[in-house]
Amino acid sequence: MKTTLLTSEDYTRSPWKNGGGIFTDIAGAHRTDAPVKDWSSLLWRFASTPIVAPGPFSYMPGIDRLQMVVAGRGLVLKAPGQEFDEREPFTTVRFAGELEIVTALEAGPVEVVNLMARRGAAEIALVALREPGERELAAGTHLVYAVSGDCGIRLNSEDFVIPGGCTLKVELTGAAGLAFVSGLAVLASIQLVG
């Protein structure tokens, strides 16, 4: 088990693919053989971003996306023939990057976290940690993002305090037990395929 505490100094900023806003990139991975780290070489990415005005989402063919509102409320993603309801914070929605999506903000700006992965390259999951409890983590990369204020977790009987706004990156070669002790966090899990 390898753990790394990522702070805001470790995060980078990059424009949305369509230029409509700015991501705060928390963690990610690209193909090792790629000469340039760009959207075409992306394996996975975990990022946060504000959505301050209604507008279109970036077109991301071949990318699967998970999204969750972590501040504010009232976000709805509208696609032809369907809606993805994120009106309540900490609700995870999954959608394909090819969908033509336009946002509706029913109660003002929101802050969201996004977990994206190249389809077929990784399996991804995104859950809110709000109540104390235990869960099993599979081999792979897991990111515990402390949404607001410090949060406490236990990994295989080792205690960690993650400062607010920071992320504990956990890289596992085998299964491990995670106990969520206190605070409010988002758990992003990535398992590379093959």
From TrEMBL:
Transmembrane segments: none annotated. Coiled coil: none annotated. This is HutD protein. It holds the Pfam family HutD. It comes from the Bacteria. It comes from Bradyrhizobium arachidis.
